[in-house]
Every structure is written in structure tokens, then in C-alpha cells.
Amino acid sequence: MSTSVLDMSMSLDGYIADPDDYLGGEDGERLHHWSAPNGQSGQLSAPARQFADEIIATGAVLAGRRTAELMDHWGGDHHGVPIFVPSHRRPGPAARWGYPLVTYVANGIESAMAQAKAAAGDRNVLVHGAYTAQRALAAGVLDEVQIHQIPVLLGGGHRLFDVLPSQIELEIIQVIDTPEATHIRYRVRR
To answer: DSSP 3-state assignment of 172?
Structure first.
């Protein structure tokens, strides 16, 4: 059975992007430095390789419209799996005609998640986007949250969990601590 997993890098003060939608730092990618190849070896660290493998093993992606548009729908190909975007507005031309793996779902987060899980089969659904994560939590359709907690304070920008309907209990199921990030995976308690 498919599991939906939000996978996001986040600053210690809860931000996933600065006010201009960059990920912090001079190069605009500070929150993703943990996943870059190591120095001169050019190899990923063991945790970065594990998480990259998990992403490649997912069977579908559920992404918020804002995230999908900022990423240009990953060029219509997020490692070859279907991309579902919950939105009440029609998609732009690229998503509508040029990206056959991208499906906009107009009838709510529950339907979008159901379609993503059906497409994923027994593989996981990778979830991207703060607003979509918040809606999925509120609707009870997000199963797990994986946070890559980065040791930096951005001081402002876009928060991951800015608006939630109520208290949501989580259970820690994995913690991997590295100098670049603390990777925490939670199961959403129902």
C-alpha cells in the first residue's frame, strides 16, 4: 500500500524559502547544501544517497501549484513518475499540453492524493509544498513527514507549517544526525 511522504528541507526557525522563494545563502540553495556531493570526491554522503534513492523509488508526486510552477513542473518529468497538482485554476499551457505526466486535479486534496496513490501502486507518493502539506494534514491524507532540519536561521520567508487547523500529533520513526542536517521522519498519528 502506498504511503504519502512530505519531504522538505527546513531551517531551524521553520522556513523552507526566503521571502524571494530562494532557499537561503549567497547561492540561493543553502537549505539543499546537505544533499550536494561531498567536496573533491564528488560523492553523495550516505544519508544523502539514501534520501535520493527514496525519492527515485517513489511512484508519484503530489505538489502544490505554487511549488510546481516555481519548478516549471520539473520540466514535466519528476524522475519519470506522474505529477498531480491540486488546484481549482486551470493549468498553464506547458502543463496542459507539453507535460503529459502532469495532471491538475480540481476536486480537492483528497481526490488528488487518491489519484496519486492509485498511480503509485505499492510505492510511496512524494509530497512537495507547504500549502499542499497543510491541506493534506487537515484532510487526514498525509501519512508521513520527513524534515531535513538545516542548522541555519533564515530569519524570514515562507514557513512550512504556517497554518494548521489544529494540533497534529506525530510519532518519530527515524532520526539521522549529520553535520549538515538532522533528518527526522515522522508518522502522522490518526
So the answer is: strand
Nearest to 170 by CA among 162, 179, 161: 161
Task: Report how far Cα 177 is from the mean position of its chain's Cα atoms.
Answer: 20
Maximal CA-CA distance, the chain: 48
| Distance in angstroms between the alpha carbons of the first and the last residue of the chain | 17
- Which pLDDT tens digit goes with each residue over 66-115? 888 888 888 888 889 999 999 998 888 777 778 889 999 999 999 999 99
% of the chain exceeding 90 in pLDDT: 60
- Nearest Cα to Cα of residue 127 among 32, 5, 31: 5
Phi-psi map region of 157: left, alpha, beta (phi>0 left; psi -120 to 50 alpha): left
Q: Residue 82 in contact with residue 116, Cβ under 8 Å?
A: yes
The overall average pLDDT reported for the chain is 90
